[in-house]
Amino acid sequence: MPTRERSVVVVLFEGVDLLDVTGPAEVFALLKRESPRTPGVQVTLAAESLEPVITAAGVRVLPDATFHDLAAQKIDTLIVPGSVDVDDHQRVTARTDPAVVSWVKRLAPQARRVASVCVGAHLLAAAGLLDGKRVTTHWSTAAQLAADFPAVEVDADPIFIREGNVWTGAGITACLDLSLALIAEDYGEAVALRVARQLVMYLKRPSGQSQFSVPIEPVSTTRRMDDLRHHITQHLTAPLTIADLAEYAHVSERQLTRVFKTELGTTPAAYVESARVEVARNQLETTDDTLERVASSCGFGTTDTLIRAFRRKLDTTPTEYRNRFRHTS
After folding, report:
1. Distance, CA of 232 to CA of 279 (rounded, Å)
2. Which residues of 87-98 are buried (b: 16+ CB within 10 A; e: fewer)?
3. Contact residues for 259 (Cβ-Cβ < 8 A; gap 6+)
4. Residue 32: helix, strand or coil by DSSP?
5. Pairing between β-strand 65-66 and β-strand 41-47 as defined by DSSP bridges
6. Is the model's pLDDT at 328 over the cut of 50?
7. 118 in catalytic set
8. Which of 111, 114, 118, 245 is catalytic?
9. In this model, does residue 170 exceed pLDDT 70?
10. Rounded CA gap, 38 and 217, in Å?
11. pLDDT at 123
12. What is the pTM of this model?
């Protein structure tokens, strides 16, 4: 438990995503409310000047300090949010303003730890802070991050990843999970869980929690694939081997595998496992069914198979998942 107030600096720049800035600040404010005897956190919003910064939402934010003001100060946590451009075809590209990158590179060595929120990982990468590290970012810019910075190992699945003193977070709302993880590291799990409850988050999500679930995967481009996905969802307790699915779709096994890879970016077996995990997650969250019953009703057959699937997909066990996310009506 820290003995004095920690300094958190959030980087501001034109067009920054508003929740990337306000989300962590709100979490740290609730820390003081839920644990008034702790020294807490002092959040400073820093920009190139003290002029109002216009965020992507059009909301003006006033900086507390300039980057130059902080150039010689020790920082506990440097938080770097992100921003994107979207073209007429809805293609998303992360911004990496050279001036902001330069200041991030200068301030980072003064910080005990550095954290990016959402596409802020692109700024950290441009500053050379992610080379050789496994990191995450929002799924929509993950391919861009990997292409622009080959020395960075990009994993678009987890909601946040810690590599030494560098943390990277995924989607915009994952900034809440990342901030809770920082609180847990500094003040303990019990304090982080109290803050999570105030945020009306059932519990703090583990870092390995996936950004994705089966229902939000890309929509199929063919009616045949849509029908096949519906068939899988409705027959999870069936074997659903590649041969079974190919026969149902009236295609060869090789063609089925090619179609899954082209349209969904995965294999038939991996998709079936994801669909079963998704249903199992829902049952673990909303029922008191035993693991044996969950495994059986979702098509896993045995609890060992269920556990292995959860470790592969979510980096946790069914029991740990239930303990974190179980809720009642």
Report:
1. 12
2. eeeeeeebbbbe
3. 222, 225, 251
4. helix
5. parallel
6. no
7. yes
8. 118
9. yes
10. 42
11. 98
12. 0.67
